[in-house]
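Follow-up to my earlier ticket, as requested here are the two runs.
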Amino acid sequence: MNEYVLAGGDAAAIARIRTRFEPDARKTDETDGLSLDMGDWRFNLRASNTENVLRLNVESKGEMLETIVAEMGNLVSGPG
């Protein structure tokens, strides 16, 4: 599992990520933020309780990790 910090995240950013990825998810869990199981990869995204950032944990069986993180970073930055 790899952890990333996405600066400036808010509820709108989480909503954009949900809109982009949830339709293809095999399973959704909202126990601690937003967790989606995408089959070959999965992630948990949650707002920090102490900083204005989103914490992203991603696990991938393939080599697409950098692409996933880059796309999420773009979605956090603004509509895309």
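Run two:
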Amino acid sequence: MEQESKAQQNCFAGIGVISSTAILLVLVSLIDGWIFVRLWRWFILPTFQLPALTIWPAVGICIVVRYLTRGRGPVDKDEPVWKTIVNSVAYSVMVFLLGALIHWLAR
């Protein structure tokens, strides 16, 4: 009985970590977009007379730039290759889902 309780606690802890990560990812993306809109209005508008940028396209641009410029960081020689592949695929899927969410919200 105690093992079942421990398994449930681990399951709920995992769900909490996943949902917290998703919420933080969306929140950080929105903050990045807001900052990008401000910088766009301060520097790009007066200099190049381009149209104003709204929050949703700015968030999308920030996501794409972050995805394209993301560094892998130091390579851990002790880490198995499969773990590196799983982490890369998981990151790509999360970026795609976040981009899909932003696209859906912008419509």
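The only thing I checked on run two: Residues 2-106 form one domain. Let me know what else you need.
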